[in-house]
What does this fold into?
Amino acid sequence: MAAIATIGFGEAAQAFVSGWQADAAVKTLGRIASFDVKIGDPSQRNTLLDASSRLDVECTETAKEALAGRGVVFSLVTADRALEAAKRVANLLDSDALYLDCNSCSPATKAAASKLVDAAGAVYVDVAVMSPVYPARHLTPLLVSGPGADRAQQELTKLGMNARIAGEKVGQASSIKMLRSVMVKGLEALTAECVLAARRAGVEEDVLASLQASDPGMDWIKRSAYNLERMMVHGKRRASEMQEVAATLRELGIPDRMASATVEWQRQLGELEIRDSDASVNGRADSILERILG
It folds into this structure.
């Protein structure tokens, strides 16, 4: 099995690593190396080192140290840093190494990154992570595309991962991810706009009951609480992703009105950094309203 490195050691990287380590079927997995730019930030350095130590990952001071001798490299940064990460590491990759770009970016961003990686002699693969990494961790569904998709699927299978080939062109996997997010993250934003206004007006029970009657296949109370929680915890990252979604729509000649509005809702709720609200839909709505209305 090829030696592994990650660029970025946030939630997704930690989820994958912990899943591999707990999977008895994944054998001969050597020590993983990781480089994360947070290593140079005094306010984040200790948190990063603690997470690396807990998962027995070699947290390096430079990207060059992390990538030396590594045949499979997972890029797991935020969407707005994905191209920057490719620029930083492309010329440090071993010849013929697999560069698995797992970031939520537009097809055009992925294509730009692929040119950098391929020109350096490595193999770029467009990877789309198709659901939250918890609780599934390394079993989270993945789509892969590009000329190296077959090889990538083989390597990911050795790691016990759930990867399916989306096509032979870079951008095919990311297109599916991006356009799905129009609906998934957009529905979260619509939930916030609807539920917060309903709670403010004092008619939330009637509104949710009406939605339940119209669409009994969904538990609207449970789903609304979940959607608010997703935005509260992950809104900043989702906002970055939705900027890439909006770019994807524009690349296709489609207006990005809903996607751009979703960026603003996701960012606003994420920046509130609420972590201790009542878990009910009304409790979460109240915590948000208290912050945004003062």
In short: The two ends are 55 Å apart (CA to CA). The beta strands are 4-7, 33-35, 58-59, 72-75, 98-101, 123-129, 141-145, 162-167. The chain has a mean pLDDT of 96.
